[in-house]
Write a structure and sequence with these properties.
74% helix; Helix Hairpins; mainly alpha; 3 domains; 270 residues; 12 helices; single chain
Amino acid sequence: MAPSIVIMNQTQTQLQELVALIQRLRAPDGCPWDRKQTRQDIGKYLLDECYEVMDALAEDDPAHIQEELGDLLFQILFIAEISAEAGEFSLSDVMQGIREKMIRRHPHVFGDVKVESVQDVKDNWQEIKKKERGGQAPGENPFGGIPRSVPALKRAHKISSAASRLGFDWPDANAVLDKLKEELVELEEARKQGNEFQIEEEMGDLFFTLVNLGRFLNVDAEKAAAGAADKFVRRWSYMTQRLAALGRSPSEATQAELDSIWNEAKQKGI
């Protein structure tokens, strides 16, 4: 038997065994917790597992990636099993549907469409998606395909990118910077008035404008914000270690001492 066939058979067997395990957990004499779960319940864990996969990918640790992909796969199969129990669709339907979609969306691989660049592939992908949904009627929401559950900064980027493709955009990064200054003034006015609702609204406008500035500068706002948070944690760790060597904690240090050590970490490139 050819190695590729052996691997395929092993994968099929393991997939069937994993589905059977979920069915056992959901059986009348199975696990009370697993039997109680709904698709919405598992959906919450699904998002958590996606984030853990992203962390593992960032670490580039194969063993950790394998583990987290397993956790994610389990949640996906669990949702499919709940749907199969309800007689709505099966795992087979899911796999057939995604296979057909991928073939349909890669006409340059499975058809006779010619592409010259990665951008051509992306453009074709969007056009095919539009056709699958029956085209976009006049006045139809161009942002309807952007999930509300994605992280806010990423959603803002997707929405502004979609608007840009429709011709609604700033001319350049300088124009976005001018808008950013305008939003800062409006935020300061809201702060002076002490209107909490308006402050939140102006903060939102500020974040949205920053996302667009990042788009013009080819900076992913979500990635940049994550990097800033990681940097803060590294510098905090350095600061607490320096203070611990002196037998003190951050709460026992003066603001001047904290600032001094923080700037020390900054100068060291931490």
